[in-house]
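Troubleshooting log. The previous structure file for this entry was overwritten by mistake, so regenerating from the original sequence record. Sequence copied from the archived sheet and checked twice against the printout by T.R.
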Amino acid sequence: MINKDLERYIPIANLMAKTFGKNCEVVIHDLSVPQNSVVYTVNNHVTGRKVGQTFDHLVKQVLLSKNFDGDYAANYKTITEDGKEIKSSTALIRNSKNEVIGALCVNYDLEPMKNMKNFLDDFMKVEEEKVKEEVEPFNNVIEIVDDLIDKIITNTNVDTLKRKEKIELIKFMDNKGIFLIKGAIEKVAEKLNISKVTVYSYLDEIKKNEEER
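Regenerated output below.
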């Protein structure tokens, strides 16, 4: 069942999809359940997003983007598994306590418009990242990622986790860019009751296994 605070955004998602047509996909994420964050989609044929899936670009292309400001990052490029070029924008959703609880994502399929590119350059432009002044610290990015780590691990009994299960959790977080944040490895090690060295060894093992595929 969708969170009531997030449910309010369903009419907005529907409005955006209706306004910009079938090539505009809108997705609502519930970040209290990171592994299954997608709770609502419209026009999900654009990227194939389904309810129950996890987020893809939140950390790497939104929270760590130099264009991330005012709780949103707009007009960054993503590529679907079948090679389609997508223009994406993401805004964080906060509750009445100013806590980040979700995200509203817009994905626009640019493929049908390529034949009109000369006329639509301004619309299709993917902005280059702008260097901005140093902020304190990362516009609450560290706090947001720490909260994601807590939620990813919260629903597991750390004391009974087997080595393979710990590696799967670390692989999930690595894929989502969690470890790009300074101090994330130390925090995860503490939460899983293992050493920082062990986390690094698991990451090395994950990388080696992927290279052997």
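The CA atoms of residues 71 and 205 lie 35 Å apart. Archived copy saved in two places this time.
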